[in-house]
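Input/output pair, single chain:
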Amino acid sequence: MKQHMLIFILTLSTSVIFAQEAISSGGDSFSGTTVGVDFTLGEPAIETHSGTVVMTQGFQQTKLQIIGVREIDQLELEVFPNPTSDYIQVSWVGGANAVTVDIFDLNGRLVKSERAQATNRLTIDLTDLQSGSYVVQVRQSNQINSSVLIQKF
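Output:
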């Protein structure tokens, strides 16, 4: 009797190990900017619906955790001329006037930083920089608001 019980328990324990797997002939995963779809061919429909936009079906049930996202007021940013040889004009609309404009090389090193207090336009002299590509990053309240790639020749 003990042998039968041992065989039964071992058989049951191995079936639990394979309980989280699905054997199918195919499936795929697609994702866009706002929606993602995962599917397995031949799976029965097991539904979970929510009142807003959440809908999951089938074996691929994910643990859903919704967190809040804080919106940052975006600036309408203009950086010109691009490409440039000596200076750039950085102007913006929206948000506060107190912004910091940082210029990084492509290795991520800060090569220049300018702060604008009471204006929405800044002229930055680039004559001391070598020719190459740079990232202009605009920060507002210590949060990165916009980034633009510029070329200096």
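The chain has a mean pLDDT of 78. The longest helix spans residues 2-17.
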